[in-house]
Amino acid sequence: MPSMGEQPLFSAKAHVFQIDPATKRNWLPASKHAVSVSFFYDANRNAYRIISVGGTKAIINSTITPNMTFTKTSHKFGQWADSRANTVYGLGFSTEQQLQQFSDQFKEVREAARLAREKSQERFELTNPALNIAAPQLSQELSEDRHSPPPLLTVNGPCEDKLIRSRSAEVELTTEKESIKKMLSEGSVSCELHMEAELFTLQDSNAKLVSALQEAESSGQMWKKQLAEYQEETDRLREQVAELEAQSVASAGSDPELSQSVETLEDLLRTKDQEIQSLQCKKTDASDLEQEKEEAMQRLQELEQQNAVLEERVKSAETDLAASQEERQQTEGEVQQAIEVLDLKILDLNSLRQSLSKLIDK
């Protein structure tokens, strides 16, 4: 939660998600509904944070660093990785405009954090004028130290210069470690999420097409059954009319009640004929539905082929991810070795500093 010294800069409503720590693929909702997500500036620490509170607990507490990047993965969804919290945060907005405003604010705050870090480093250099070691020099030393033992230190300047070089090495080492961890943690998350979303979309489309085909087939079968029943009833009425006509001819029109029954049956027969014609028109519509069904089946086959291709791509992505993880482990091992070498150098520098301090005291 924000402290008393923090100032609010920007706030927006969004649904908050966090990446599943077990799979690193699925999103887990951190809030049941849209909550306020705010940017704060801490004047005491000269730092910027993103904070969101759900109920009585903070569901987002992310300190913004110059290495962070906010990525828009869709029209209304964006994400960023926080290596310090060891998670990836996702935000779902109600409009694309709100997402764009949050993204712009994130860039501004990240730039402000970068300027704040540079000013802090400048103040450190001003208070220590003997600081003359450069970052490229340290990177070159890192590269050389991975393949060779630490060289002997030589004194080429004042004692204070050597003392500050050890402090600079510690600061640069911390920055280098954060950068490498950031690069390794963010590498494969967005690719996996994109492939998974595309696969889920295709599966949803397949399910909708299958449902529409089943409804069309059910309607066609119902119309066919109704048409057959009407035709059967019409044939039965025709037989009755024929029998009545034969009886009327035999009785030579002497029975008016029989004639009225014949007329009633003829009217009923004409009504049934009209219903049969109507059903035949519906049968034509059913034929159209059959054609649409065939087209939908063809489209479904195409989607299944695309789904198979996407599954292959997912398998390939998983293979690449495994390779990337193996490479990351190897890189982490190399970084650990470099850290150990730097620790030895720092110990040597501390020892040299103590020796030089003793010499100065003498």
Distinctive features:
362 residues, alpha+beta, eight-stranded antiparallel sheet, 66% helix, elongated
Could you give a short description of this structure?
The chain has five helices and eight strands; from the N terminus they run ββββββββααααα. The protein has 362 residues and is of the alpha+beta class.
Structure commentary:
- By secondary structure, the protein is α+β, with helices and mostly antiparallel strands.
- Helices cover 66% and strands 15% of the residues.
- The chain has helices at residues 96-127, 135-145, 159-186, 189-251, 256-361; strands spanning 6-19, 27-29, 35-42, 47-54, 57-63, 71-72, 77-82, 87-92.
- Strands 1, 2, 3, 4, 5, 6, 7 and 8 form an eight-stranded antiparallel β-sheet that branches.
- Helix 3 packs antiparallel against helix 5 (256-361) and helix 4 (189-251) packs antiparallel against helix 5 (256-361).
- The longest helix is centred in the last third of the chain and has 106 residues, at 256-361.
- It starts with 5 loop residues before the first strand and ends with a helix.
Global shape: elongated
Helix/strand/pairing category: alpha+beta
Span between termini: 53 Å
What average pLDDT do the residues reach? 76
Q: Figure out the total of helices.
A: 5
What is the subunit arrangement here? single chain
Q: What share of residues is helical?
A: 55-70%
Total DSSP E strands: 8
Q: Which regions contain 5 or more consecutive residues with pLDDT less than 50?
A: 130-173, 183-194
Strand and helix order: EEEEEEEEHHHHH
Largest sheet geometry: 8 strands, antiparallel
Which percent band covers the strand fraction? 5-15%
User: Over all CA atoms, what is the radius of gyration?
Assistant: 39 Å
